[in-house]
Write a structure and sequence with these properties.
single chain, alpha/beta, Rossmann fold, three-stranded antiparallel beta sheet, 11 helices, globular
Amino acid sequence: MGTVEARDEFFGAGSGVRIHYLDWGGSGRPVILLHGLASSCRIWDFTAPLVAERFRVFALDQRGHGLSDKPGSYTFAEVTGDLSTFIEGLGLERPVIVGHSWGAGVAVQFAADYPDIPSAIGLIDGGFMARSSFEMTWEQAEVMMRPPAIDGVPVKTFLGFAKKWPDVAGIWSDQLGEMILSNLEVRDGKVYRRLPILDHMTIAREIWEQEPSELYPRIRCPVLMVPAIKHSDDSQRELWTSAKLQGIARAKQLLRDVRVVPMEDTIHDVPVQRPKELAAAVIDFAGSV
């Protein structure tokens, strides 16, 4: 998946929060990669080295995730504040910010609140679905978005289940296993969530409350949207797919400059399943701004 090796680094983002990131090297315009909820910077391990062949690449562990500090407060304002301080501290000029899932919501919020900083943003299967697309209350959504309680499960047992997950069974590798384990803390041969369920649900509520279409008019930079499209007999999955398509249609009406590159028959974790195609889309987009 590429020969570039990342360097572990830490940055003090202010308010005593220390942010961990992987410096993938490269040269030229900076590209900052943001992971999704309960994930880590390692989700970009397959994609980042390919993008680093053309650009200067960084992958961040957002607060509460990976090896970054866990301050217990996770509003969009705080998370985008971390990102702003990171960009300023490293002297990165006009970066392209690419976010996956929750990270895409962070990218949208950042571009709206700091419109002069990014040269472009990339939204990977996130950042374009509106709450209004779902006929449900937060109480109903909360049940659907709550993650399973896995604290204390033996590592071998957890990996045994993970290998059988329908979305990754066909692409499993030792490296993918390491990437998944990076989302968790391993102690005494058992796994524990780095982000407690209570904090997870706090962020989930932030995601639920965010209305991207209300932010679009404040975004000045070009936007890349990469939806994962996977049709299914499962009505729940079809609901999500329909919401994505509705959100993209709305974005085309409200954004000044938007490009859509759908990934057909692809799982939500696009950076894991389609890294080459995703890297090519990001490289082409970042090279055009």
